Amino acid sequence: MFRRILRQVDRPAYAGVKPSERAYVQARALLGEASCVVELSSDFPAAIELLTRADVIARGAGLEELRAPILGQRGFVKRHVGDLDGAILDITAGLSHARFAEARDETRLWLNRGAIYLDLGESELAIHDLKRCIASGGRPGVSPVLVVGARHNLGYAEYLRGELPAAITAMTEAAAEAPESQLGVLLMERAMVLIEAGLSTDAESVLLDARERLRATKMNRNVAEAELVRSRCLVDLRRYDEAALAARSAARLFARVGNRPLHLRSEVARLQARLGADREQGVSRAVALRRAGEALALATAALEVGRVGGWGVVVPARLLAAEWQIAAGDLEAAREALARMPRIARYDSLTVRVQHHVVRARLAVADGDRAGLRRAVAAGQRLLSEHRAKLGSVDAVTAAAVHGVWLGLVDVAAAERSRRPAALFDAVERGRATFAGMGRVRPPVDPVDADLLRRARAEIEAARGLETSGGDERERSARLREARRLQEEVRHRSWQAGGGLAVPVPATARQVRKALATAAPPPGPSVVNMVVLEDRVCAVVVSADGVCRVDLAPMAQIAELVRRTRTDLEVLANDFIPAPIRAVADASLSRSVARLDELLLAPLGVRGDLHIAARDLLLVVPWLSLPSRRGRRTWVNSWVDLRDRGEARRPGGVLSVAGPGLRVAEKEARAVADTWGEAVLLTGADATCEATKDALSSAGVVHLAAHGRHDTDNALFSSLRLVDGPLFAHELDGLDLRGAVVVLSACEAGLSSIRTGGEALGMTAVLLRLGVSAVIASVAPLRDDVAARVMPAFHEMLRDGATPGDALARAVADDPEPTPLVCFGPLNL
Prior knowledge:
With 829 residues, the protein is of the alpha/beta class. Helices cover 60% and strands 9% of the residues.
């Protein structure tokens, strides 16, 4: 179309047009053609030639107003080839002509220079220009697209400053106003922020959407950028082969469009994927040295293409080289690689900044430098703590743990080699505590979130009704899909919440031993920290008498027994299973729990009270069903939360709630309320989600007798069914429940899903993060008649002063049925 315009203005029919008007149209058409050439063919010399022709025409006609857009377009082309310094100079020159320029041209110059400052990591300069762009947005002739782009880029500036909730908010608001043609780029850059937040699974979904949109526009440079970002995302998800393929795809596309700096970044991303695989699988000395050489060559090549070439290449490339050199045993070369590395900037990604401390720690370990190891790990943990403190929602806090995995592994591996049990305990807790605890206290209720959750509840209940009545399966599936869409929208909105609460201080073996020695009555419980080392479960036992390490069993063997136990419990909880099959399951369960006892507890020699800190499948062992723990106080957490003993139970009333669909739930809830004498009792039509949440905020003891559902795919939407639908774990995020005791008398409420970074998510995990002193929950299906027998006895003992762990152990000790109830909570003494 631009070329047609150029042909038309040369025809005789336009001979009477003023020369200045003809020149204006010609120059504008050449500007447009140059933009198309860049995006479609990446023929940058041809684009520069077109701009030169436009400049000659504009100068010849005295069209000063076109100098700004022509210079700005030259800068735009230079940005595409990676010459960001040259691009800044051209656009700045264009802005010197801005007083003559049309409003749309000046606005675009502010936007483009701001975007280039973001490429350079100069967030403050970028913010200045982007705000100037937004201020120009109300002038006649300015496209709203420019303002949307500026608002989105302000979000990217917040990302560079480490303010991730603010970044996500700005980008989300900008995307809501963006036209379809602009969404691909906006989604790609939003995915970068999600990766920085640790939300890599969500980021990949966004990137796949962005990639398809960008492919439809045939903008190869942006498609390549999407593949480059996706490679980083896949590394975080530990899908290293896919990450390497995505990086290679990006490198080929950048080579095709002639963008040398981004081609180099893609090659660095490919090596990052290779390093991830080598970390997990090991690497030979020859291969490690070869890959270190590749990384160093990339760093050298980056320096040769100028300032922008070095950003995003030199630092990570030298870190990669150093890590492979350490693996090869060439420590002197690794030191040199670190010494020649430019100073890490605040705008470098969190992944790179943490990797720097990982490499320092590995080098210190190889040197036998304990002090150097402590300094490197401490610096890395401070960085992670600063990052985590800015995040508010449970979802974001638990996701961010992915950034600390390798630092924690180096720390734990060094402590394990020291053969000092206390050092191993301390290293494990340093890694776990960084992403534990609360993210925020709930702000005022957001009416949009409340409406989304109300609609999600209604869809789920409608689907349930169709299922029980034998209604249309397609409609039921559609209802559930809409519920999930609404839940995801709520979840995405939660990422915009800021943090502000202090990061928990990790417990040390010395502190725990001292606390146990002063417990009343002495000597206090034994604390067992379980960790998997080289696929084998290892326990560090801390008591008032000392600290010791005990190697237990292969994790694969434990995992098989836990899964078998759960299957047997499912069979025994089902009233419709025939008696012969139940007898087989009962015998199998007896064998499994006895074997778990033999492998996990017998070697520890603990006979008194026991507090277990563990992760993954070890969190769902039915500990009180193990023979040696029957009747003995046993409680569990994912980290050693050495909380102030004054928070053991907060003052407040008792809340007892009965959900629908359980034969004896109302009877159980009334019995609990009668046990305490004065209690808020919610049953029948009164047992709504809103009424329950309102009463939760002031209750000291909470009993919820309701159907439970653990959502494996989206653990934050694990739920308890109340009269108006499911009460989601997500809805509780931000409530201040410090010191409360919560009983979830429901199937599976104690289950959790493990995120890539190792953090547990589910109804119980959320409650623990909100500060409860104990959660009583089931890790397998629980028959409601069993719960109805056990729970009143539990509450009687709790009322009379027993700890939650003691009360539960004594309540289930003599019950003839297996009771997979577990007491979860911090180390309250």
